[in-house]
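Readers of this paper often ask what the protein records in our data store actually look like. The remainder of this section carries one protein's record, kept here as part of the documentation.

:::
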Amino acid sequence: MTDRRTVIADAAIATLAHEGMRGFTHRAVDRVAELPEGSTSYYFRTREALMFAALARMAELDTRDVGDLPEQSGKVDLETLSDLMTAFVLTWLTEGRERTIARYELTLESTRRPELRAKMEEYGSMFRLMAEKTIAAAGATEPERRARTLVAYLDGLMLHQLSRVGAGETALRAACRDLLVMALA
């Protein structure tokens, strides 16, 4: 059985994805979680605490999605990395779609909330570090700078895909490869 805090965090993610920040209320999360009114505010007293819970849950699920990266002690080839990146992006655009949309909602909200921005930076640093280690294993020079750029470009690519500006899976696969070629150049 899933604990109540996790149920609420999952419902908060769904609420953010479907209602945006404007519809992100304790009552709305109670409804999505199918809990009695007041349950969410019992566990997460403030809207900010609820945002942090959703963000922590997203980081947990994203980490699970990433799973085991290729062994970083040896050279990692471009095609393996392209396949890996494409698989992550496809996961985050399909079964993780709500989570990805919720992340963009929180990203925009973080421009007005320094505490949220700091927490997003903390969670994001884990993924930038993974990207840095992986592209370093593939031979990238300046892996820290290039990983930060790669993650930023990847965010833009996913936003385009979510908003239907981007093309289909074949084009997505090519775009992921192109991003890696730039990161490894």
